[in-house]
Design goal:
Length: about 400
């Protein structure tokens, strides 16, 4: 089977989320992604939850998700021989992905100038919190500070409760997603120009554009107009708890009548308090109380089905179980079963860009160091004596 990125070789020396997610996208679309792990493995291997609740480097749900379809080489880049083996692999790579702090990368010996000297055609992708230069370049950070520094927390939450962090590691995933896009642009340019370049991914850069018009609005007016409204921008745009979950509604004026027909409350259509959108805004609290009372007696899937028939803008908040059972996702083959030799079988989401049911390679994450010997032989060009020397010095696991 041929995939979109067949023939592309990627070296990934990043850890945790951002660089591995970028590498995961390359691997899923067919690239040969060689994950270079330090002795003991990527720190994500120690991040739970684990299969059966027992910590194990091969059963971390986070690691298994982020590293599908890759090969693993366990190599100590802190040693001269380990770093030399890495640069031998660089010679055969199209893309190198890393997410070290700039000064840490320099200390480790992973330097763009040297990579370019070894392989001028290679695209180097560096993912950091703030980029390769500037006053914050070497600041330590985490996912929460990335949300704060990118501005998302300023527009998320409520006026009363203050800023709120989004769930999960979405800032890190945005770094990985944008890194993949930047790498593909640079690969296209490399095919045209015959030389690679350094793709400098700042997570802060990735997050700030997600504020939509926030920055230009502020620059025009000198103030931020919208308020943090939490789950309710208005009574007619919000999230309401139902008997088995939550319902979301987003009513435009043209949706008012079909919505009321759906919830069997046509009495509100004649209520002068709610006649126009302006009226509904003035009597927002009263209308919200009506909607809370209505939703409390509904089940999410029943009302969603009814809303679909009536063309009313109501949906339900999908849980993880809902996503796994989604007829839409299953019909398109998006939910895929992958069996790992240690962790067993689990369901995984498919690709963010749909190239058809056969456009994504659903293979398990690698065992730590499982491909060290074959990669060092076939890619780095080391012989048995050199690999044995590395093994004896505990620089690799084979």
């Amino acid at each position: 089977m041929t995939y979109a990125l067949d023939g592309i070789r990627v070296l990934e020396i990043g850890t945790f989320v951002s660089a591995p997610y970028c590498g995961k996208l390359f691997a899923g679309y067919g690239a040969d992604v060689i994950k270079v792990e330090p002795p003991g493995g990527d720190i994500a291997r120690a991040h739970g939850p684990f299969r059966n609740g027992e910590p194990h480097p091969e059963t971390s749900a986070l690691f298994l998700y982020l590293n599908t379809g890759k090969r693993s080489v366990e190599l100590d880049l802190r040693t001269p021989a380990g770093l030399d083996a890495f640069y031998r692999m660089v010679e055969q790579a199209d893309v190198v992905i890393e997410n070290f702090q700039p000064r840490d990368a320099q200390a480790l010996g992973v330097k763009y100038d040297r990579i370019r000297e070894v392989n001028p055609h290679a695209v180097v992708v560096s993912i950091t919190a703030y980029g390769q230069d500037g006053p914050y370049a070497d600041y330590r950070t985490n996912n929460l500070t990335a949300f704060a520094m990118g501005g998302q927390m300023y527009i998320t939450g409520t006026q009363e409760g203050g800023p709120l962090k989004n769930g999960g590691y979405q800032a890190d995933y945005q770094g990985g997603l944008n890194a993949f896009s930047g790498a593909m642009l640079a690969l296209t340019a490399a095919e045209r120009d015959g030389e690679g370049q350094h793709v400098d991914i700042s997570v802060q850069h990735c997050m700030a554009p997600l504020l939509e018009s926030g920055i230009p609005v502020y620059s025009y007016l000198g103030r931020w107009m919208p308020f943090r409204r939490g789950n309710h921008m208005a009574s007619f745009i919000g999230i309401y708890p139902c008997t088995d979950g939550h319902l979301g509604i987003h009513l435009m004026p043209r949706n008012w009548k079909p919505f009321l027909e759906t919830i069997d409350r046509m009495d509100l259509y004649e209520d002068p308090r709610f006649k126009t959108q302006a009226d509904r805004t003035v009597h927002n609290d009263e209308l919200m109380a009506e909607f809370f009372a209505w939703a409390a007696g509904e089940t999410k899937k029943d009302i969603y089905e009814r809303a679909g028939r009536m063309r009313a803008p109501i949906a339900y908040v999908h849980t993880m179980a809902d996503l796994l059972e989604s007829p839409q996702l299953r019909e398109r083959g998006f939910i895929q079963q992958i069996t790992h030799p240690v962790a067993g079988e689990a369901s995984y989401p498919g690709p963010p860009w749909w190239l058809g049911p056969d456009g994504w390679r659903p293979e398990p994450a690698p065992l730590l160091g499982a491909d060290t010997e074959v990669v060092l032989t076939d890619v780095a060009g080391l012989d048995e004596r050199q690999i044995a020397a590395l093994r004896e010095e505990r620089m690799v696991s084979v």
